[in-house]
Design goal:
The complex is a heterodimer of chains A (about 300) and B (about 240).
Chain A: H1 3-12, E1 22-27, E2 30-35, E3 40-44, E4 50-55, E5 62-70, E6 76-85, E7 90-100, E8 107-117, E9 122-132, E10 139-141, E11 144-149, E12 154-163, E13 167-176, E14 181-190, E15 195-204, E16 209-219, E17 224-233, E18 237-247, E19 252-261, E20 266-275, H2 279-287, H3 292-304
Parallel strand pairs in A: 1-5, 4-6, 5-7, 6-8, 7-9, 8-10, 8-11, 9-12, 10-13, 11-13, 12-14, 13-15, 14-16, 15-17, 16-18, 17-19, 18-20
Antiparallel strand pairs in A: 1-2, 3-4
Chain B: E1 2-11, E2 14-24, E3 28-33, H1 40-48, E4 55-60, E5 63-64, H2 70-76, E6 78-81, H3 93-101, H4 107-116, H5 121-124, H6 135-149, E7 153-157, H7 165-181, E8 185-189, H8 193-196, E9 201-206, E10 209-215, H9 216-223
Helix pairs in contact in B: 3-6, 4-6
Classes of the chains: A mainly beta (about 300), B alpha/beta (about 240).
The structure holds adenosine-5'-triphosphate and magnesium ion.
Adenosine-5'-triphosphate binds near residues 37, 38, 40, 42 and 83 of chain B.
Chain lengths: ~300, ~240
């Protein structure tokens, strides 16, 4: 890897790659480095590009890293990654995609991630997206995440789009059996003419299935964001969806909530709030000595933290 | 020294402050009191730069600060605790204290500041400054952020509001200590006799005018015999 690529990996991974129990590093369309261990097995797919990750039953605190880096302008790829998490296994998966584009051709990475959680499995999935480079070629990321949760399993999905992604369309779909919990935290910052769309569909099939979806976003300059969520409750279940957005300059945010209760004991809540930074928040931080610009940054950083 | 010269403030054809002239000296504890809606908070906001007066000048330690911004006044050493503390999303108590001190602040130092306002620090330091905190907790944190700035002029707008009876005693101790530690001007807006009692000087504002001013003993005698309309504003005709 050259220096640009090394730096890019750092931007999307807080942790050193080699600290992981298992990892797969993908650079410009090829898997270039991989590590497996007795509990976690990463295998390349035969029919298409991507990997299968198998985590054995009862694996405790496995850490898996799967960063993807694109520095070749004009590269467009769709990658299929499947995760099979064994019974009562407990893993943390750090995914991230960084694109560096200095040319005028568009670069695009579309990751299709499917998670199959067996009974009692626990997964924390963290995904960071980042774009950089001086070319006018676009940096495009369209992730699709599908989750199937068996009895008693739980999953947390943290997604963060930090900077520099021109176009993104994120689709997440989850089906939950009984006594499962799915927590989704999404954070997005857009600027310039960027566009970000997210779509969530959570189907609560089992008794005592619950989900908590939180989206916090900031749209600045001429950027556009759309948040669409659909939660379907087919049993005694609980859902809380929260969309909270700050708009600045000419930024536009659209939130489309949909909740559907097909069972008398389904309890579904959707909250959405869009607005500019509250004037009194700026004022308070200015009384503590921050300039207006610094105050604005502190409020946005806190909001997206 | 803080000097207000001919400060007037009018909104919707209503005179909220009417040609206020006031001089506040170093090392003194002032309490402003007066009926609801008489213009006390407005005056405090004008000193901090949150509101701009229609006329008049503000001189702080020899500098004309009438036209400078809020943050510039903060940097000159003016601190203001809001009557209604502001809530945030994602900003923690520790973050706010770090912003206030403008320097490296260890958690231990932050805890020390919180303990001054009677908060058990470990429970609060990482809490977000949002609606999940109770009114009294927010109020204490608000006071702590101002203490953390070490201002030369501190303004507290009804610091006692929402603070329970048991802690109230401690709060008056905090003010006494501020008075001892920070050699500066302390200005507190309050309706509470206990706070009035620790003042060097009491200033009565009614309908946008300073109607009485004097040392504590003289004022406490007159204030409570003074006719003030309970519906706010000046005494009813
Ligand atoms: N920006 C504004 N626009 C219109 N009216 C205002 C504005 N600011 C203050 N006022 C009015 O000015 C009056 C004085 O308000 P202020 O908040 O200063 O009162 P106060 O003395 O602090 O009262 P309290 O004891 O209830 O806190 C009130 O009648 C208020 O409604
Ligand atoms: Mg007031």
């Amino acid at each position: 890897m050259n220096n640009i690529e090394k730096e890019l990996v750092k931007k999307v991974m807080d942790n050193e790659l080699t600290n992981a129990d298992a990892y797969n590093l993908r650079v410009n369309g090829e898997s270039v480095e991989r590590k497996n261990n007795p509990y976690i097995d990463i295998i390349s797919k035969k029919d298409k590009s991507g990997i299968d990750v198998h985590v054995k039953d009862n694996t405790l605190f496995g850490i898996i890293h799967i960063p993807v880096i694109l520095t070749e302008s004009g590269l467009t790829e769709t990658v299929y990654n499947d995760f099979y998490i064994g019974k009562n296994a407990n893993v943390i998966i750090l995914a991230g995609c960084g694109i560096h584009n200095d040319e005028h051709k568009d670069s695009e990475h579309d990751g299709v991630h499917r998670f199959f959680l067996s009974e009692g499995a626990k997964v924390k999935y963290v995904e960071k997206h980042y774009g950089e480079g001086n070319g006018d070629g676009k940096k495009i990321l369209n992730p699709i995440t599908e989750v199937e949760m068996q009895k008693g399993s739980s999953m947390t999905i943290d997604t963060l789009q930090i900077k520099g992604v021109d176009n993104t369309f994120r689709k997440t779909k989850a089906i939950l059996a009984s006594n499962t919990t799915l927590v989704i935290n999404e954070k997005i910052l857009t600027s310039n003419n960027q566009e970000a769309k997210t779509e969530f569909e959570v189907i609560l099939n089992g008794e005592n299935a619950s989900t908590h979806v939180t989206s916090r976003s900031v749209a600045t300059e001429n950027s556009y964001q759309e948040f669409k969520s659909n939660v379907i409750g087919n049993n005694k279940c609980y859902a809380h969806v929260e969309c909270d957005a700050i708009i600045k300059d000419e930024g536009v945010v659209k939130a489309i909530p949909e909740i559907c209760a097909n069972n008398i004991d389904a309890n579904l809540i959707h909250e959405a709030a869009i607005g500019k930074i509250a004037g009194e928040q700026l004022t308070k931080l200015m009384t503590l000595g921050l300039t207006e610009k610094e105050a604005e940054e502190a409020i946005i950083n806190g909001f997206l933290k | 020294m803080l000097e207000l010269q001919n400060i007037s403030f009018e909104r919707n054809n209503k005179k909220i402050l009417n040609n206020i002239n006031l001089r506040l000296d170093e090392n003194k504890f002032y309490v402003i009191t007066g009926p609801n809606g008489s213009g006390k908070s407005t005056l405090a906001k004008i000193i901090m730069g949150i509101e701009k007066p229609d006329t008049g000048r503000i001189i702080f330690n020899g500098t004309d600060i009438t036209n400078i911004t809020i943050d510039e006044r903060a940097k000159l050493g003016i601190g203001f605790a809001f009557q209604q503390p502001v809530r945030f999303k994602g900003i923690t108590v520790y973050d706010l204290l770090k912003i206030a001190t403008k320097e490296e602040l260890t958690k231990q130092q932050a805890c020390l500041i919180l303990s001054k306002v009677g908060l058990c620090a470990n429970e609060y330091i990482d809490r977000e400054v949002n609606g999940s905190l109770s009114g009294g907790e927010l109020k204490r944190i608000e006071i702590a952020t101002v203490l953390a700035c070490h201002p030369k002029l501190t303004i507290f707008d009804e610091p006692e509001a929402g603070i329970d009876l048991w802690s109230f005693q401690n709060l008056t101790q905090v003010f006494k200590q501020i008075q001892k530690e920070y050699k500066g001007i302390n200005l507190v807006i309050s309706h509470q006799e206990r706070i009035l009692n620790i003042a060097d000087e009491i200033i009565l504002i009614e309908q946008g005018n300073i109607t009485k001013r004097g040392n504590k003993n003289m004022m406490l005698d007159t204030i409570f015999t003074h006719e003030v309309c309970s519906k706010g504003g000046v005494a009813c005709e």
